Amino acid sequence: AKRDGRDRFAVFDPVMYTDITRETQQRADLERALDEDQFVLYFQPIVDLTTRRLVGVEALVRWHHPVDGLVGPDTFIPIAEATGLIVPLGQWIIRQAVRQLAQWHRDNPATTHLRMSINVSGRQFQGSGLVEEVTAVLAETGVDPNAIVLEITESMLMQDVDATALMLQELRDLGVRVAVDDFGTGYSSLSYLKRFPVDILKVDRSFVGGHNADDTTLADAVLGLGRALQLQTVAEGIETDTQWSTMRDLGYDYGQGYLFARPASAVHIDQLMADPTSP
Ligand code: C2E
Ligand code: CA
Ligand code: CA
Ligand code: CA
């Protein structure tokens, strides 16, 4: 290769340069969105699979984009993670979700048993601020720590075992519960899972089949794991009556999915809670 100035200049690969510019731009967009309150939490009901009664909700973030409309988390959470903006965004999500639960508990005594599940990303988990953040918002709102469920993915458990186990223990010491999300997609074994202090297993919706025997076998195996560890179990992505009855009859405790309710704004959830016969 030539060793002149032009060649060295090629270190600034135009593709890479574009990537960096794009990332800077995306981070700036998300930062502005956070500043301008463009994020909004939706909430999806979680029900008791036997009675179909509401036991809690999962907070799911959306972006009210001024031009594109309502944008789903799958498009911007990865960018927020890559750019580090997930840390302030995640703080906002935790605060917003816990405050919302406090308001429901306050406004409607029939909802005091309701739990709030909050997704926590790997990057939030690596920083040390999470425990302090949760502590602060619990103190501010007076919400029972037991009503808060932090959802971490199975793949996060596979990162740094000792640090993760320590962090989970600190959160548990606060009294909050921990759920393993998307469970079944990360191949953790019983002996592996045993090392982490968790309370709840959420089986990934790819296991919630109910259409053929294979699907049921896997869902049953995951349930066996949960039971061996004395964890509560949640089946995600229940869309049909067959899926519901299959997971219920297997013995899953809780369920979540479009059959029961789609994620909705707080106002919609208010209406739902006002009507005791729904969802
Ligand atoms: P997740 O945590 O596994 O959330 C469940 C996703 O499944 C949600 O998608 C929900 O709308 C969708 N879902 C619920 N019931 C059904 C169903 O019956 N059928 C089908 N096909 N889908 C169903 P959503 O809201 O688009 O969120 C996608 C992912 O984005 C979440 O997956 C989670 O990993 C991430 N995410 C969402 N909100 C947050 C957040 O506040 N913080 C972080 N860190 N991640 C979030
Ligand atoms: Ca989740
Ligand atoms: Ca999930
Ligand atoms: Ca997921």
Automatic annotation (TrEMBL):
Residues 23-277 form the EAL domain. It comes from the Bacteria. This is PAS domain S-box-containing protein/diguanylate cyclase (GGDEF) domain-containing protein. It comes from Virgisporangium aurantiacum.
